[in-house]
From TrEMBL:
GO molecular function: serine-type endopeptidase activity
Name recorded for this polypeptide: Prolyl endopeptidase
SUPFAM superfamilies in alphabetical order: alpha/beta-Hydrolases, Peptidase/esterase 'gauge' domain
Domain Peptidase S9A N-terminal positions: 96-444
Species annotation: Podilymbus podiceps (Pied-billed grebe)
Span of domain Peptidase S9 prolyl oligopeptidase catalytic: 507-684
Cellular component GO terms held in the UniProt record: cytoskeleton; cytosol; Golgi apparatus
């Protein structure tokens, strides 16, 4: 019945949610370099892309800016013009959906309250006292709590003897959360990025540290930033989701800001990284398939950056440094998966790259951290996590298998590369983060008992392989309560993503544990297009291979049902962002496999979006989806699976969608069109059939005024999950 469908949707959540529970002080390590850019899907901005004929990346002569400190360059305002028909239609659709949601949500106030209370209880039980990571510089420790940054001596940090260095409230940044922090080498300055939940652009605040910390400078629209010296900061500017310019700003007696590098190719995104030993800053220009790195010598930051290796199509590489040698994480050579190579700084060209270590076949290199005499590689094979510790002294490699319940690593910051211990956390969707340490001196793994965290003992983890249409084996990770009986009668929540070479998000979520306790089965389908089995897994599911991901998803769900994990009438499908492509496509091709679908900021209008080159990410996204404007084959192929294009009158599952008014990546207009067309198809089918018990599915859209593309603070995420009807 319709009531049954609504009940099935109650408590459902999403496969990719970015909680900012503790607003972690992120210190970028090499791990950030091997993960694809988070520039998914597309923007609905009206900026235009122009064709350029200049070289792709250019080091520029020093240029000075005349703008006053902390001021913004005013933008030209569009003239007021009468609303077009499409704008009026958009406003009417938006108003109609908001009224519809207000009417629906009032029916579930009591249920929403109960779910919210349960989630808060779980959060307080497992996460509240976990604290944010602490960053140690010599005898000083920096950490963040509740929008404030504190400084303490290492011996006093647990005694409460701390100094407050920064407060978002006191300095007029109310509503913003701390995203990243960088301390200058001599601890003279601290750079902080602040992000508002309604914007993807961050503001960088530079504080001069001392007995009384003061704001030295405020830089708007910053993406990444690193200190080259005590008083020289490099940063990238962000505009319309693009980062293509690198600047240097100084805090000497003669303060000035200079443009250092500009990227001319719209497919490339620029960021900055500091090598672990602080010898170089790297300017990294990356597309989805190709990269190029320039070095800034931190001993001579005013010299022009030096090129490591000119971009070569299909070759991705990222750079670390140790003892006058560059350690290069790259896809160069066969197989085209990540491997570790090295070359002298003085002759860093590809012809001089020498292999240091290559993971075994079907093993994915997830993360890497450099130390003075060691390198730790975080690996994934057949769903299991491993550490490989490489000693540069003994030239040995030690492999350590991690607990079987673990699904994700979370590397902690290690600003001092000479440290003798590597700290990291392990987690799964139903296991709270647990801290571990690897000691180079003791040569062993230590489980840290920092706090009393209850251990989840009644949840069983199963790993399966589903045979897809072309015989490819697709991994599935399944969680369920060990005490559950008659699993074929239990509700099943299936998660999928399958794009950009990114793994499914399998970090801990309170709502996942709540579902397990309520008897649900959780399944994570690691389909092609994602990155679970390496770069080739992504390649086999992008552009003209996108349908393989759809076939994988269908095979996974069918295997789950065949093995007795629930059945179609108790099955729901959850996806976020680009995961909406495969989820929406499956609902068109095989609607009978699921009873409900929950989408967060879904990309469901692929063809129309990729036809609009004025959107800032369209050109960059062509390496993932194809170019329908230049290639008729691409147009036909995208049209064959695009969720919006393939809606037809048939019996659809119920659908609940969360979208965001301020989402710059997925145009809200596309989501509105999708919902309108889906409702019409469902009504058309219902009017043509008169089967007894035939019911029109619930198709509900919740448009959030706060938040931006799956990125909401803990409190707003809590409201989103608890309000899912």
């Amino acid at each position: 019945s319709c009531v049954g469908l609504r009940n099935l949707l109650q408590g459902l959540s999403f496969s990719v949610k970015c909680y900012s529970r503790h607003n972690y002080l992120q210190t970028i390590c090499l791990c950030g370099r091997i993960k694809p850019q988070k520039c998914h899907v597309l923007d609905c901005s009206g900026s235009t892309c122009t064709h350029r004929t200049v070289p792709p990346g250019s080091i520029l002569p020093w240029r000075f800016f005349s703008c006053k400190e902390g001021t913004k360059i005013p933008s030209k305002r569009k003239q007021n013009i009468s609303l077009t028909t499409s704008e009026l239609l958009y406003k009417n659709l938006l108003k109609s959906e908001q009224e519809n949601w207000n009417d629906i949500s009032t029916r579930y106030k009591a249920l929403t309250k109960r779910i919210k209370e349960k989630l808060e209880e779980l959060h307080n039980k497992y996460m509240f006292n976990s604290g944010s990571p602490r960053i140690r510089f010599g005898d000083n420790v920096y950490f963040e709590e509740n929008g404030c940054i504190f400084l303490s001596k290492a011996d006093d940090v647990d005694e409460g003897n701390v100094d407050i260095l920064f407060s978002t409230e006191d300095l007029g940044f109310s509503g913003a959360f701390i995203q990243q922090i960088r301390i200058s080498p001599g601890q003279r300055y601290m750079a902080i990025s602040l992000k508002n939940e309604n914007s993807e652009e961050a503001t960088c605040v530079i504080m001069q540290l001392g007995h009384f910390s003061v704001v030295e400078k405020v830089i708007p629209s910053v993406f990444s930033f690193e200190w080259a010296t005590n008083d020289v900061l490099f940063y990238t500017s962000q505009k319309n989701l693009k980062c293509q310019n690198v600047f240097m700003t100084t805090f000497t007696n003669q303060k000035h800001t200079k443009l250092v590098y500009t990227e001319q190719d719209a497919r490339f995104f620029v960021d900055i990284y500091c090598t672990k030993d602080r010898r170089f800053l790297t300017i990294n220009s990356n597309s989805k398939t190709t990269s190029e790195v320039w070095l800034v010598d931190c001993r001579h930051p005013f010299k022009l950056p030096a090129l490591v290796q000119a971009r070569t199509k299909g070759v991705i590489y990222h750079v670390e440094h140790r003892n006058e040698e560059l350690y290069i994480l790259t896809t160069y050579g066969e197989p085209a998966e990540y491997k570790l190579m090295k070359a002298p700084v003085a002759s860093s060209g590809m012809e001089n790259w020498q292999l240091v270590y290559a993971p075994e076949k079907k093993t994915k290199l997830v993360d890497l951290e450099m130390f003075s005499d060691h390198c730790i590689m975080f690996l994934k094979n057949a769903g299991h996590l491993y550490l490989n510790v490489i000693s540069f002294v003994s030239h040995s490699v030690q492999s350590i298998k991690l607990p079987t319940w673990a699904c994700e690593f979370e590397l902690e910051s290690h600003p001092e590369h000479t440290t003798s211990t590597c700290y990291f956390q392990l987690t799964s969707p139903v296991h709270p983060p647990k801290r571990f340490a690897y000691s180079f001196k003791e040569n062993n793994l230590i489980e840290q008992a920092v706090q009393e965290v209850p251990i989840i003992t009644n949840c069983h983890t199963t790993r399966l392989l589903a045979k897809s249409k072309d015989e490819t084996l697709v991994p599935i990770t399944v969680f369920h309560n060990m005490n559950s009986k008659e699993l074929h009668r239990k509700p099943l929540l299936v998660h999928v993503y399958g794009a950009y070479g990114r793994d499914l998000n399998m970090s801990f979520k309170e709502e996942k544990l709540m579902l397990i306790e309520a008897g649900w089965i959780l399944a994570y389908c690691h389909v092609r297009g994602g990155g679970e089995l390496g770069l080739s897994w992504h390649k086999d599911g992008r552009q003209h291979n996108k349908l393989k991901g759809l076939h994988d998803l269908k095979a996974c769900i069918m295997l789950l049902h065949k093995l007795g994990f629930s059945q179609p009438k108790y099955t729901a499908l959850a996806a976020a962002s680009a995961g909406g492509v495969l989820a929406g496509a499956l609902c068109n091709t095989d609607p009978e496999l699921t009873r409900a679908m929950v989408l967060q900021a879904p990309f469901v209008d692929v063809l129309n979006t990729m036809m609009k080159t004025h959107l800032p990410l369209t050109i960059e996204e062509q390496e993932e989806w194809g170019n329908p404007l230049a290639d008729e084959k691409s147009m036909k192929y995208i049209k064959s699976y695009c969720p919006y294009q393939n809606i037809k009158p048939q019996c659809y599952p119920s659908v609940f969608i969360t979208a965001y008014e301020n989402d710059q990546r997925v145009p809200l207009t596309g989501v509105l069109r999708y919902v309108w067309k889906l409702r019409k198809a469902a009504l058309d089918h219902a009017s043509r059939t008169s089967k007894k018990g035939n019911c029109i599915p619930n198709i509900i859209l919740d448009i959030r005024a706060n938040g931006s593309h799956c990125d909401s603070p803990w409190e707003d995420s809590l409201n989103e999950v608890s309000m899912s009807p």
